[in-house]
Amino acid sequence: MAAQCRDCGLDIRWFQPMRLDGKAIPVDISPDPDHGTVRQHISGTADKTVLRGEILKGTALDNAHADGEALWMRHAETCTAHKPYNPKPAHVVLDIPAPPRRPRRRYR
Question: Please, how many CA atoms are within 13 Å of residue 16, restricted to the half-sphere of its CB?
């Protein structure tokens, strides 16, 4: 049931949202005990199992971490294709000479 991220190619899982009008939640393939924020709920019939995800915040997230629940990390937070540009640190000074100027052409 594992799919692949279309941007980075890593394996992901899709959780259906708890609300009927919500969007599906892409999560990493295995739970992350330290940084996970999505709780898995299994529902459906014996023939068809539906994985639903609930994004936890605040005290609900703290309680889930304290209880040692298996929480999944949203893939958008770990996707390597969406990493921001790494700027040059402020204390680093580059001393790169300017490229040589071409001599001006003189038209006669």
Answer: 12
- pLDDT category of residue 1 using cuts at 50, 70 and 90: low
Q: Measured between alpha carbons, how far is 33 from 8 in angstroms, rounded to an integer?
A: 23
pLDDT of 38-53, one tens digit each?
Answer: 998 888 887 888 888 9
Strands 11-17 and 49-55, bridge-based pairing: parallel
CA angle, residues 88, 94, 97, in degrees to nearest 5: 140
Q: Cα dist. 74→30, 63, 90 in Å? A: 11, 19, 31
Closest to 50 in 3D by CA, of 16, 1, 4? 16
